[in-house]
């Protein structure tokens, strides 16, 4: 709830925890959560603030495929419903299928910028 106190109109904490599948863990401390649960809490903490820009570094890295797709769906929802720009930094190239714009880098340099005209919903992405 601390993150929610940083903005005027936060999303309901309980609603976001439900979205990330952790409503039943609301009273737990970080040490009582698995790595994947901590990663989902990090996404929830960021989402509750309805940011204009959401930077996500490997948001599916510690998650199984199903949970990873659920988190990608939440990030897509944040973009669609709240107008937040979501930037996902990842080595998982399959995720680029849901991105409107893909910026590929190599050795710290941009090597390609692509516009994706046929977006896949997160649930249809396979990796």
Explain this structure:
The chain is of the alpha+beta class and 127 residues long. The protein has one domain: Rossmann fold (3-Layer(aba) Sandwich). Helix content is 30%, strand content 18%. Strands 1-2 form a two-stranded parallel ribbon. The model has no long low-confidence stretch (mean pLDDT 91).
Fill in the keyword field for this structure.
single chain, 127 residues, alpha+beta, Rossmann fold, two-stranded parallel sheet
Question: What's the quick description here?
Answer:
By secondary structure, this protein is an alpha+beta fold. The chain contains three helices and four strands, in the order H-H-E-H-E-E-E. 30% of the residues lie in helices and 18% in strands.
Task: Please indicate the percent range of residues in DSSP E strands (runs of 2 or more).
Answer: 15-25%
Q: Mind summarizing the main beta sheet? A: 2 strands, parallel
Rounded to the nearest angstrom, the distance between the terminal CA atoms is 34 Å
CATH C-level class: Alpha Beta
Strands side by side in the biggest sheet? 1-2
CATH topology: Rossmann fold
Runs in which pLDDT lies below 50 for 5 or more consecutive residues are none
List how many beta strands DSSP finds: 4
Rounded average pLDDT: 91
What would you call the structural class? Answer: alpha+beta
Count of discrete alpha- or pi-helical segments spanning 4 or more residues: 3
CATH superfamily: P-loop containing nucleotide triphosphate hydrolases
CATH architecture: 3-Layer(aba) Sandwich
């Amino acid at each position: 709830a601390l993150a929610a106190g940083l903005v005027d109109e936060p999303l309901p904490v309980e609603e976001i925890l439900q979205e990330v599948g952790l409503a039943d863990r609301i009273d737990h401390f970080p040490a009582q959560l698995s790595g994947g649960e901590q990663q989902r809490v990090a996404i929830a903490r960021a989402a509750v603030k309805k940011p204009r820009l959401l930077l996500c570094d490997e948001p599916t890295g510690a998650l199984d495929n199903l949970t990873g797709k659920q988190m990608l769906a939440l990030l897509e929802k944040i973009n669609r419903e709240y107008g937040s720009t979501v930037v996902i930094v990842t080595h998982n190239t399959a995720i680029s299928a849901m991105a409107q714009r893909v910026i590929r880098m190599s050795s710290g340099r941009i090597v390609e910028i692509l516009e994706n005209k046929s977006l896949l919903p997160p649930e249809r992405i396979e990796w």
